[in-house]
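Input chain follows. Return structure tokens only.
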Amino acid sequence: MRPANSSTASWLAAAVFAAAMTIGGGFVAAQSAPDSENGRYSMTPIPEGVLRLDTRTGTVSTCSKNGAGWACYAVPDERTALDAEIGRLQAEVEKLKGQIAAGPTVSGKIDEALPKSDPLKKEPKVAEGDRRIEIPLPSDQDVDRVMSFLEKAWRRLIDMANRVQKDVSGKI
């Protein structure tokens, strides 16, 4: 018998593996499929490992590989905490509604009535016979100041446009 070289050994190993898979195929098919194949779990890769969603219960777990193998840890369910907070707030609202319904709890009496309008706010002038509001118009001095400002701004804009035109035409 002659010694086996590396290509013959690797070919022999592949053939043995293929035969074992063919023979064991009937055994594997007879076993029940894992839950992930039946659609119970949905797996999504993440940088730390795998995110597993249990489609029956809605539980989410993170699975990662450590020295002993794969381990899955349930992700804290924020929905439970939110539902608890909503319940607490609803109970508090009901308690406050009960207190309001019990009646006013004003202590002490105010001797004088509060003003109906703000004393610092200027009220529009109303003519005696008419109920029209007078709108104060700007004075001639205000109009002159605005016109002066607009004239200066227009002159500056024209000067700037002339400078740009000279720069573009190369007459600097």
